[in-house]
Amino acid sequence: MWSLGDYGEVSPLLEPYAVKLAESCGLRPGMRVLDVAAGNGNFALATAHIGAVVTASDLTPRMLEMGRERSQAAGAAITWLEGDAESLPVEDSSFDVVASVFGAMFAPRPEQVAREMFRACVPGGVVAMANYAWDGYLASFAKLLAGYSGPSPLGLPSPFEWGDPAEVERRFAGLASSIEVTPGVVAMTFASVDDGLAFFERTNGPHIALKSLASSDMYAEFMRDTRELMRTMNRATDGRLHLESGYINVVARK
Prior knowledge:
By secondary structure, the protein is α/β, with parallel strands linked by helices. 42% of the residues lie in helices and 25% in strands. The chain is built from nine helices and seven strands. Strands 3-2-1-4-5-7-6 form a seven-stranded mixed β-sheet, with helices on both faces. Helix 5 packs antiparallel against helix 9 (216-233). The longest helix has 18 residues, at 216-233. The radius of gyration is 18 Å and the shape is globular. It starts with 6 loop residues before the first helix and ends with a strand.
C-alpha cells in the first residue's frame, strides 16, 4: 500500500516531527538507535546527525531502497533491515532507543508492536513514538476513505487509536516504567485546495488504491467529498490550503 504513492514528497512534511521526537529521547553520541517502520529515514537521519549508531527497519522494499539512497547521499552510516514492526529482526535488549514516527502505528496488531519495541530496548532505555490522533484533517480523511472502501474484513483497530494517551498507556502496561505524552499538531500547507487535492491523489497509498478499485462515478464523488473536507477544514484565509492534524509524542522508559 505505502509503495503506491510518492513517499519522497511526503517525507519532508513529516521530517520536523521526527527531529522533535529525537530531541525528546535524550540521545547522546554512540547510543544505539532502532527506527521502526522507518519509511525513508526521517528519524534515523535525525539521530545519526547526533552521532548515534543507527539501524532502520521497514517492511517495504521500496522504502528501504529510498532510505539507503537518502542516507548514503547524506553521508550517514545507517544499517537498513527489512522487517515487520510486529516481528523485528533484532536481538533482545540491543538498542538504547527504539522509536517510530508515524510508522509502527499502522501495523495491524498494536499489542504485538508494543511488545516488540520493548523487547528490542535495553532495560532503562527509551521507547518513543509519534502517532496521529483523532482530531484534525488526517483522521477525518481516513474516516471519509473508509466510508468508500468499507471496513476492514478482519475488524482491525484504527491506527489513530495510537494517538489516544489512554490507549497508549493500556498497550504499554507492564512494559514501561514511565510514560510521557506530549500533544502536538502536524501542519501541512499547499498553494491552494487544488494543489492539496493533487498532492494526496499523487502520494497517499490508500487514496491511490481506492482510485484503482472504484468506479469512475464513485471516485468522482469521493474526490468531491475530499475537496469539501479540505475546504471545510482549511485554516488559511489567503487562498492557500492549510490543514492541521493532532498527534502525540510518546516517550516511555522500559
